[in-house]
């Protein structure tokens, strides 16, 4: 049996201790790396992208010459969405745009700056469309309450944050603010809404009169937030000239009422037929009536007096309610082609009568061609009355 020396036992013990240290060190390192995550693969999610429909767009209209009672300018103070149901507007309208100089100096803001603010506030790259002016002027005008506080009079017991408000017109004894006006494009749209509302109540009124509304009048400013006109009627008698017009519109938050000045101009009247008339019809008083014609459709060839047409004959097809022009009617036809005629030949005091056949149509005093029966000879005669023509010859001269 082989004997083992103490030195051999020492070498084996050293190896066992060394292996234990290596193994322990490995497990400690693996545990630490696992806890730190350096050996654990991590899946990174793909970056999220926000896609916007190509048809997604917001349309805003910029207010003009805004006067605020607070130096803080908010988005809702200077623009109005054309879509009153825009869901994001309640939050967007409170976004701050900037501060106004407290000395009343006007500040101008353009569309580009507001568009960037809208995109940044919404964090979505919507397409933004505009109507109205390219920029607007804003100025700060403190209210009467703030002016009293500035002069040292007692203030309220606690401070409050006042919401900015938009004043379309403000005039004080010390300062007169220039009157603003609606953008021309929006003003024309409001006038078109007013005309539609008037037509709903009286369809023929705008046919009888031309409506003229000055878009620069102060009452138009109160319709800045209008989204349609519900009512429009005249407060004064309807007649040519200036009249008072009451308007009630649908606003963003509530109904808006205004009283403005409108001018009525009576449209010219033209004679028309009450029914369709074919050519060759003798016109009577019951066949005629007058209708107003818009100035842009008026022609100088229209008849305006019905008495001029009574007893005349249609020369072309006349449609109902169409204005009658010069040339559409004429003198009644007394003789028609193929009629047998009595021909009266007059030579001085001698008169000879014969028969002939008409070769054409003719009214009173018209010259027509006739053909005698025996012998057959073509002559020119003047129409005297129905069935009678006349030929006048000169008496022979004697020397």
UniProtKB/TrEMBL annotation:
GO terms for biological process: bacterial-type flagellum assembly. This is Flagellar basal body P-ring biosynthesis protein FlgA. Keywords: Cell projection, Cilium, Flagellum, Signal. Residues 1-34 form the signal peptide. Residues 271-391 form the Flagella basal body P-ring formation protein FlgA SAF domain. The lineage of its organism: Bacteria, Pseudomonadati, Planctomycetota, Planctomycetia, Pirellulales. InterPro entries: Flagellar_FlgA, SAF_FlgA. The keyword Cytoplasm does not apply. It holds the Pfam family ChapFlgA.
């Amino acid at each position: 049996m082989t004997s083992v020396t103490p030195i051999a036992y020492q070498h084996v013990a050293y190896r066992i201790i060394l292996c234990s240290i290596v193994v322990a060190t490995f497990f400690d390192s693996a545990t630490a790396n696992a806890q730190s995550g350096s050996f654990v693969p991590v899946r990174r999610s793909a970056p999220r992208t926000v896609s916007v429909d190509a048809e997604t767009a917001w349309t805003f209209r910029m207010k003009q010459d805004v006067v605020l009672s607070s130096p803080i300018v908010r988005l809702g103070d200077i623009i109005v969405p054309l879509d009153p149901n825009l869901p994001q507007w309640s939050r967007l309208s409170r976004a701050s745009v900037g501060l106004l100089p407290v000395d009343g100096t006007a500040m101008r803001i353009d569309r580009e700056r507001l568009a960037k603010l809208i995109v940044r506030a919404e964090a979505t790259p919507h397409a933004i469309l505009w109507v109205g002016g390219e920029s607007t002027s804003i100025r700060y005008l403190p209210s009467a309450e703030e002016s009293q506080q500035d002069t040292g009079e007692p203030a309220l017991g606690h401070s409050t944050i006042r919401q900015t408000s938009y004043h379309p017109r403000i005039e004080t004894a010390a300062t007169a603010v220039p009157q603003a006006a609606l953008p021309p494009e929006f003003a024309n749209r409001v006038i078109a809404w007013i005309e539609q509302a008037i037509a709903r109540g009286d369809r023929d009124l705008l046919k009888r009169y031309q409506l003229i509304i000055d878009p620069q009048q102060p009452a138009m400013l109160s319709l800045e937030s209008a989204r349609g006109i519900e009512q429009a009627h005249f407060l004064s008698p309807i007649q040519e000239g200036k009249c008072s017009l009451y308007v009630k519109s649908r606003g963003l938050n509530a109904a808006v009422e205004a009283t403005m000045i409108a001018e009525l101009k009576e449209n010219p009247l033209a004679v028309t037929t009450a029914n369709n008339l074919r050519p060759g019809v003798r016109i009577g008083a019951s066949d005629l009536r007058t209708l107003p014609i818009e100035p842009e459709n008026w022609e100088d060839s229209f008849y305006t007096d019905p008495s001029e047409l009574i007893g005349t004959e249609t020369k072309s097809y006349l449609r109902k309610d169409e204005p009658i022009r010069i040339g559409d009617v004429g003198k009644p036809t007394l003789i028609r082609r193929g009629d047998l005629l009595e021909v009266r030949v007059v030579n001085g005091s001698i008169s000879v009568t014969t028969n002939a056949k008409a070769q054409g149509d003719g009214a009173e005093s018209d010259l027509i061609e006739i053909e005698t029966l025996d012998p057959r000879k073509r002559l020119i005669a003047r129409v005297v009355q129905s069935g009678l023509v006349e030929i006048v010859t000169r008496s022979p001269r004697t020397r």
